[in-house]
Amino acid sequence: MSKDLIKGALDIDPWLEPYSASLISRQLQYHQWLETLEKSEGSLFDFASSYKKYGLHADKATKAITITEYIPDVQLVSLVGEFNGWDVDSHRLEKKNDFGLWQLTIEPVNGDYAIAHDSKYKISMLTAAGERIYRLDPWGTRATFDKYTTLYEGRFWNPELTYTFKHPRPHLNEVEGLKIYEAHVGISSPEPKIASYKEFTQNTLPVIHKLGYNTIQLMAIMEHAYYASFGYQVTNFFSISSRYGTPEELKELIDEAHRLGIRVLLDVVHSHSSKNVEDGLNNFNGTDHYLFHGGPKGNHDLWDSRLFNYSNYETLRFLLSNLKFYVDVYGFDGFRFDGVTSMLYKHHGLSYGFSGDYNEYFNQDLVDNDAITYLMLGHRLLEEISEADKGALFTTVAEDVSGMPTLCLPISKGGIGFDYRLSMAIPDMWIKILKHLRDEEWDLGNIVFTLTNRRHGEKCIAYSESHDQALVGDKTLAFWLMDKEMYTNMSELSPMTETVSRGLALHKMIRLVTFALGGEGYLNFEGNEFGHPEWLDFPREGNDDSYHYARRQFNLIHDDLLRYKFLFRFDSAMLELDTKYGVLLTPQAYISLKHEIDKVLVFERNGLLFIFNFHPTQSFPDYKVGVEAAGEYQIVLDSDSKELGGFGRINDLDSAGNKISFPTLPEQWNNRSNALFIYVPSRTALVLQLKSKVK
Ligand SMILES: *[C@@H]1O[C@H](CO)[C@@H](O)[C@H](O)[C@H]1NC(C)=O
Ligand SMILES: *[C@@H]1O[C@H](CO)[C@@H](O)[C@H](O)[C@H]1NC(C)=O
Ligand SMILES: *[C@@H]1O[C@H](CO)[C@@H](O)[C@H](O)[C@H]1NC(C)=O
Ligand SMILES: *[C@@H]1O[C@H](CO)[C@@H](O)[C@H](O)[C@H]1NC(C)=O
C-alpha cells in the first residue's frame, strides 16, 4: 500500500528499491504534517497566509492597526516606537493563549492611523527572568540602516499608494527551457555604488531581455545587515533589502520583467539565518531556540549562523508564510533554494565527501527528515497557490551538491518536489581544467561525462560559472583565460594576441558545450555573458569599504572598440538556439564522437548537430561527421564568425550570397546512419540544422 507512494521514483530508478523504507517514511512524515496542519489551520494555504495576520497590519477601512506575535514564555510584550515615544507601558499586547500568542489592536487617532508610515518600531519584552529586551518584529516588512546606531531599524511600511501590478505572470512556454540570468541588484551598474531597483528596471532588464533570458534569479533580496554577505546572512526575512529602494520599487521591477515575458525567481535563504540579535532574528525572545535549534545543533560553524528547527510548528508557519509572502506580495515566480545540502543533512555537507553511494542519502543518522518535510510542504504549498491562482506555474531550483536522489521528482512520484537542481560539478570541472591542464591535455571523455552525469528523470540547470566563481578569492572563466590582457588587449585597435583569441574562442565554446549537453536549463551570472573582467568584492573592512569591485561594467559591451561585445552577442545567439529549435527541454544528446587526439566532439540534440574542435592548432578541412537524419544541413551558429569575434575562417555563403548546404551521404559513420563532410577550424564550435528546418 504505502509503496504506491514511491512507485514513480522506483520506476525511474530501480536501484532505490533497497531504500524504500526511508523513502516511504519521508512521504508518511510529510503526509502526517500536512494532515496536522489541515486539521488545526484549515489548510496549508491558510497556514502559510499567516503573514497577513502576524506582525503589524493596517486596516484600510477602519484605520486600526493590529499587531500579532508568537512569543512563548515571556511575561510582558509591548509595542514601542516613535509613535509612542518608545514607552513600554502605553501599548501592551494581550496574551491570547497558552502557546504564546499575543495581540493588540490600536484604534485610529483623529481618524488616522495611530502609527505613521515609515516610522520606527520595536517589540519590547519582559522575559521570564525579568530582563527587559527590545527586538525587531520577525514579520516586519521594512528595515533600514541607521547611521547613528549602525544597526538596521524596523519600520512600519504602510504607504498610502501601493504599487499595483499591471502585467500577468508570463506563462512557461512548453518547449523553451529555463534560461536563467542570475543577478544582484546592487552591483548592476558600472559605477562604484549600490545600484537601485529603479536602475535595474530601467537599465538591466532591457539587457537581459535582449540577450534572450526568460528567467531572472534575484540574489540578495531578503534583508541582510552585512552587504558583503552577498545576501546570505539574512536578518529580516519579510523585508526586502532597503539598500536598493522601496518595496514598491521592487514590485515595479518584477512587473516590468513580467511585461517583457521574463519570470523572476527569488534566491530564498531558509537554510540558515544571521546571528544578529539587535537587528536580526537570533535570540528573539531571549533564548537561542526561538524558531532555531537550541544549543550546538542550532549553529552552523562554518557560516557562523543560526539553523532553523524544521520540526517546530511555528518555524514552519514562519518559513512557509515567507514563501507565500514573496509569491503573493511581490509576484515572484518561484525560488532558488539556497544551501539545500546543508538542510538535507545533519552534517550539513561540511567536510563530507559524497561518493554517490546511496547509503549516504538514506542513512537516518545522516539525513534531516524534518528539513525534507519542510521542503515538501513548501512544494505542496506552491501547488496549492497555483491551483488557487489560475494555474500559475512556479519553478523551484535546489542548490544541492550531494545529488540526493528524488530531490527533483514531484511529491506524487515519491520525490521531494523540486523542479531543478544546479549542476554544481560543472563549474568546478571547468576551473580545474583551466587551472591545471594544457589545451592538448583536455580530456573530452571526462568533460562529456561530467556534463551528462545526472540522474535520469530529474532536471538539472547547467552553468559554466555562477556568482560563486565571480566572488573574490576565485576567478571567472574570462579571467582564467585572459587575465591581465583583459586590461590591455581587448581593444580592437590593438592586434589580436594569442591569449585573447584563445580566450574569446574557449569562452564561447565552454558556454556552448555546457548549454547544449549539461542540462534541461541554463544559468549565467550577470556580466559573465560578456566575459566580465575582474572579480566581485563587496565593500568591507579588508578593502577599505571600496565599491570598486562591487559593480558590473555594462559599459564595456556598449564600447564598440572593445571585444566584449562579441562574447555578449554570442550569448544571445546561443540562447536563440533554444528559443528557435528547442535544445534544453529535449532528451539527452546522442554523442557520436569524442576524439581525444583530434579534440573533436560531435553530438546531436533534438536534430541539431553540434561539432566542437577544441584542438589548439589543428584545423580539419574535410572532417567526416556522423548524423542520423539524412538531408541538407546548414550552419546556424559558427563561433568563429567575425561577427562573434572569430577569424571568419568558414565562408558559408556561395558566390551568389546564398547559404551553403552540406548534404549527407548515406554512409554509416560513428554509429549514425549518415555522414557529412565539413571544415572544422581549430577552437571552433559549429551548430547545424536541416535546411528545411532552419528558421
Ligand atoms: C522562547 O521561545 C521558545 C520556543 O520557540 C521557548 O521554548 C522559550 O522558552 C522561550 N524563551 C523565553 C525566555 O521566553
Ligand atoms: C525543535 O523543535 C521541537 C518541536 O518544537 C522540540 O521538541 C525540539 O526540542 C527542538 N529541538 C531543538 C534542538 O531545539
Ligand atoms: C598585451 O598585453 C600585454 C600584457 O598585458 C602587453 O605587454 C602587450 O603589449 C599587449 N599586446 C598588445 C598587442 O597590445
Ligand atoms: C548506436 O546507436 C543506436 C541508436 O541510436 C543506439 O541504440 C546504440 O546504443 C548505439 N551504439 C553504440 C555502440 O553507441
From TrEMBL:
It catalyses: Transfers a segment of a (1->4)-alpha-D-glucan chain to a primary hydroxy group in a similar glucan chain. The keyword Glycosyltransferase applies. GO terms for biological process: glycogen biosynthetic process. Pathway: Glycan biosynthesis; glycogen biosynthesis. One of its GO terms (cellular component) is cytoplasm. The keyword DNA repair does not apply. SMART domains: Aamy (SM00642). Pfam families: Alpha-amylase, Alpha-amylase_C, CBM_48. Residues 202-555 form the Glycosyl hydrolase family 13 catalytic domain. Keywords: Glycogen biosynthesis, Glycosyltransferase, Transferase. One of its GO terms (molecular function) is 1,4-alpha-glucan branching enzyme activity. The active site is at residues 338, 399. Its EC number is 2.4.1.18. Glycogen-branching enzyme participates in the glycogen biosynthetic process along with glycogenin and glycogen synthase. Generates alpha-1,6-glucosidic branches from alpha-1,4-linked glucose chains, to increase solubility of the glycogen polymer. Belongs to the glycosyl hydrolase 13 family. GlgB subfamily. PANTHER family: 1,4-ALPHA-GLUCAN-BRANCHING ENZYME (PTHR43651). This is 1,4-alpha-glucan-branching enzyme. It comes from Candidozyma pseudohaemuli.
